[in-house]
């Protein structure tokens, strides 16, 4: 924790001339971008896997229908198919899982009053009027929704909502133009409708975590929206099934 705190402090010092007063917030955004950049090769691999899964959907459906009364044979046949095609039903999960340690580090860093037995000086940093260690409830108690700190959260909520609406509408257009085959795996249609709604759930997370962690989430979610447009431009239907976070 102390090493990570030192990293954030150094990034903030470097950015201080460019972002006076909000250097720590800018450092968190930069840190998030660096994490996403490091994970990007895995996101590209996940995109290839999602496209392979989309192409395999009719075969998977036929295998499920053929072996629906024999779960053991069904599992073996699916594993053989994925191995033969060098695909994985979980190909889209790895990039999101690898980001969790960075998120939890920020969460704990800005939730702790002390680091290594010393006062946590990062808690003194703010994004305009909102302390990076505070939550939305703190902003509501200090000026309300339209107070100085409350307005910072309103901007974050607006960004998350815009990204969620973008994801949802884009997915609807993609699936209308590239509908899933009728023989696709059971529940695939429901999954396609549910995944874009995950971005709306981010609003709750932004409201309950420290502002520093909320900045990570907002930056990462926005990055994901742009990344999906680029990685799935040649196969929109597969992009509709990708994790939006």
TrEMBL record:
Question: Taking every annotated instance into account, which residue ranges of this chain make up the domain Membrane insertase YidC/Oxa/ALB C-terminal?
Answer: 26-232
- Entry's transmembrane regions: 18-39, 89-110, 150-168, 194-218
Q: How does it sit in the membrane?
A: Multi-pass membrane protein
Keyword field contains Chaperone: yes
What keywords were assigned to this record?
Cell membrane, Chaperone, Membrane, Protein transport, Transmembrane, Transmembrane helix, Transport
* Keyword Chaperone in record: yes
Tell me, in one coarse class, where this protein mainly resides. membrane
Report the locations given in the UniProt record.
Answer: Cell membrane; Membrane
A Pfam family of this chain:
60KD_IMP
- Coiled coil region boundaries: none
Assigned protein family: Belongs to the OXA1/ALB3/YidC family. Type 1 subfamily.
State the NCBIfam families in the record: yidC_oxa1_cterm
Main function: Required for the insertion and/or proper folding and/or complex formation of integral membrane proteins into the membrane. Involved in integration of membrane proteins that insert both dependently and independently of the Sec translocase complex, as well as at least some lipoproteins. Aids folding of multispanning membrane proteins.
Q: How does it assemble?
A: Interacts with the Sec translocase complex via SecD. Specifically interacts with transmembrane segments of nascent integral membrane proteins during membrane integration.
Concerning PANTHER family, the annotation shows: CYTOCHROME C OXIDASE ASSEMBLY PROTEIN COX18, MITOCHONDRIAL, OXA1
Name it: Membrane protein insertase YidC
Native species: Streptomyces katsurahamanus
